[in-house]
Amino acid sequence: MHVKESSIEQELIDKLGELKYTLRPDIRDRAAMERNFREKFQALNRVSLTNAEFQRLLDEIVTPDVFKAAQTLRHRNAFTRDDGTPLNYTLVNINDWCKNDFEVASQFRINTEYSYHRYDVLLLINGVPAVQIELKTLGINPRRAIEQIVEYKNDPGNSYTRTLLCFIQLFIVSNRDFTYYFANNNARHFAFNADERFLPIYQYAAPDNTKINGIDAFAEAFLAKCTLGQMISRYMVLVASEQKLLMMRPYQIYAVKNIVECIDKNLGNGYIWHTTGSGKTLTSFKASTLLKANPAIEKCLFVVDRKDLDRQTREEFNRFQQGCVEENTNTGALVRRMLSDDAADKVIVCTIQKLGLALDENSKRNRSRERRGLASHTEQLEALRDKRIVFIFDECHRSQFGDNHQAIKEFFPKAQLFGFTGTPIFEANASYKRIEGEEQTLKTTEDLFQQSLHEYTITHAIEDRNVLRFHVDYYKPDGKRPPKPGETLAKRAIVDAILAKHDTATGGRRFNAILATASINDAIEYFKLFAVAQAEKQQADPHWQPLNIAAVFSPPADVSPDVRQLQEDLPQEQEDNKHDPEAKKNALKAIIADYNARFSTNHRIEEFDAYYQDVQQRIKDQQFPNADLPHKGREKLDIVIVVDMLLTGFDSKYLNTLYVDKNLKHHGLIQAFSRTNRVLNDTKPYGNILDFRGQQKEVDAAIALFSGAKADKAREIWLVDTAPVVIDKLKDARGRLDRFMASQGLSGKPDDIANLKGDAARAAFVEHFKQVQKLKVQLDQYTDLTPEQAQQIDQVLPRDEHNAFRGAYLETAQRLRAQQAKWSGQKDGAADEQIDQLDFEFVLFASSTIDYDYIMKLIADYSAKAPGKASMSREQLIGLIASDAKFMDEREDISEYVRGLKAGEGLNEAAIRAGYERFKQDRAAQEMAALSDKHGLPVTALRAFVDAILARRIFDGEQLTELLSPLDLGWKARTQKELALMGDLLPLLNKRAGGREIAGLKAYEE
């Protein structure tokens, strides 16, 4: 049944009426909205403005800067009246958002010379439009709906920059059955970029994480007046350093609510089980800032472990709110801030180690203070003993399971302790662990923190696509007597296996990897073995590109206090460093020297921390393509060899593979695996684990332990399907594509796609082939395919045929994309819904290995070899170029150029590149000459006009008038000539702009 958009809209408006919103059918245009806003503003601020003052107020508050508008909405502002007196005002009641007027306007229109936008439903808070709801009839793809809102916002005539709509905080998109919401933002945080990475989009959920999808239930749960007020005022974060609005996810909101309630009602301690990668820092930041406003609380200490996490958390907190957390360089500074009455010192980030030292009467620092006749830190802190202090522990499964935890509880009897963990300690994974130099039995998380306040497990996160699933490949070496783990032979076999599988695992080196080893000696040995193996490979094949490999482990002996602190949570490395420290030091020096030579850096072992930070940054910054880098691959790190470092708390979207040659279990295993499963886009379908120790039993046990509520289904949720299952899905998808082609009276061959009749058929082809491509991308990263399975895949989709299909897809998609662009902003236009809703996902069609350099090399190879001897025929070469999204705008030119070359002509790469540039210039000159002929314009004037547009990426209507003035046309004939000329120039301008937008062309695209 096809439900009309208008009836969905009416149902929603009725629902909002039930929720006591005031319905305002009279607010349909800008003037009515401004009149209503003026009334509400004057009533709230008890003032009567003159017309001139009101106009000036609008001019002051309306801004194209979303972040600035969001600040204005949340704060008290100043305005000078005509008589010079100041007026301090707010736009809404910021002290109690529930007391604002909540109204609904629908079918609101803004007319400008460029566009005729219609907004389905707007929610007004005190007359300020704060939420826009877009309704759809189809089973919408939420990404497409977002993309449409992005298109509206980019429209030159949009009203988000010039009217009160600049205050929109949230967009909601629904087709009645599925509802999504996302925060408004400035363009750089509000875009669909070429990598298809865009703003986070949310679905609301109940406290048990079940989704609230239907618009009716969503309105009830999210749009109730007080709730919406809280969502905007309390649960959105304005990230100052990035000028960005961030919405908290439902589970983060419930965690914060429960902590705050626990403190308000003094209900004791509690812990939050939120899986690794789910944004614990934002949750704890929000909890801390809400506690800042609670007068019953003396201090809130956010306690982290290890120096790098201390820095990371401090930077994260300061990212959300500049300067809200200072650096605690030593224990003395921590004590001073704990005793300070300054509001800035109410929330303190510190490490468990410094806190422990402050509370330990026998510490060296306290003893030395006593000897000098000074009060010890413990004596100073006595003043706080009876105060209510809140401690929030990040990753509370670490050192807090020891004396420090006990010391805090004894010293501050009225303290409330809250812990965050991605991997709680249960009976099953509690074990002995070295803490503060003693053996100590660990207790469970519940023993320490009394009660679970909210759970959001990895199972929930995978279902929500907040983190990825895992693909685990248990490597089985060939041969009758496989070497034992740890033997040198085994290590060499593992190095060879990694070199053989790395390109597959990392999607053609699009991503990077970590190799986890069992000891520092193992890490050193691996580093040397890689150097030997790669040298041998290069000798055998000069074209083979070696991998960039680094290693990090803590330096032994004389290290800085920073590094000492770092080592406190790395028991294996600390133990290793007691044996033959000199050899380890020399090995690390050599590893750092190799890194310096490779990346033109100048790190030293004495400043290990800077080296460690650089390695982390390089893993995080691995952005493809590499066009901006001076030497291909020079800036990238492919594999980092570690022992304990980087296996907890480290995040990078570009890390997708973990090679494991160490024993892992329980929370250690989940922590290590979770380094690989941050979401990027569809080119990263899952996190890859290659286990060289056959630890399937441990993996199954860890999954069972940490899956939370859905333990029975955990394996199928956590792990991707095995290769045979995905191959069957690929066969099905290919079958559906063939059946669709047959239904159109065509064969299933790529050549026939050009014969599809009508846009609806083309749209159906795009949807069918996209499913095929998604499965192919998934299989392309499987490291455990057997030769038989690879053959099956090739039978379903032979390589040349796959390339031809990709080329046909890109050509069809480009054509339909142009249709979408035409309809953009014309909500009442003749848009075909099926095409309007298409989401092309071009990123699936851009290979990481095939770039401009690679294509030029292949063309040179074709030119250099005798006919039939080149690695690719002319047709294969053209097919490859046509199948990659990166060349969409240049495809015709490159293909035409290749058609004009002769095999065996013997041109080198430099000659090929120069020839191609000449070819493009000639072609452009011919196009220009043909256009100047057709329109009777001097070619030099036309070329200057086009060059000026491309240089500024702005279309200037006055220059167009000037260009046409020598033709002496009447206004009617001139308008027709303008349209005809721009119709011909548009494709040329868009092509030469290389996908970048040219402002002002929208009017001619209609």
Automatic annotation (TrEMBL):
One of its GO terms (molecular function) is DNA binding. CDD domains: HsdR_N, SF2_C_EcoR124I-like. Signal peptide: none annotated. Pfam families: EcoR124_C, HSDR_N, SWI2_SNF2, T1R_D3-like. Coiled coil: none annotated. Keywords: ATP-binding, DNA-binding, Endonuclease, Hydrolase, Nuclease, Nucleotide-binding, Restriction system. Residues 261-442 form the Helicase ATP-binding domain. SUPFAM superfamilies: P-loop containing nucleoside triphosphate hydrolases (SSF52540). GO terms for biological process: DNA restriction-modification system. It comes from the Bacteria. It is an enzyme of class 3 (hydrolase). The keyword DNA-binding applies. It catalyses: Endonucleolytic cleavage of DNA to give random double-stranded fragments with terminal 5'-phosphates, ATP is simultaneously hydrolyzed. Its EC number is 3.1.21.3. The type I restriction/modification system is composed of three polypeptides R, M and S. Subunit R is required for both nuclease and ATPase activities, but not for modification. Belongs to the HsdR family. This is Type I restriction enzyme endonuclease subunit. It comes from Pseudoxanthomonas spadix (strain BD-a59). The lineage of its organism: Bacteria, Pseudomonadati, Pseudomonadota, Gammaproteobacteria, Lysobacterales.
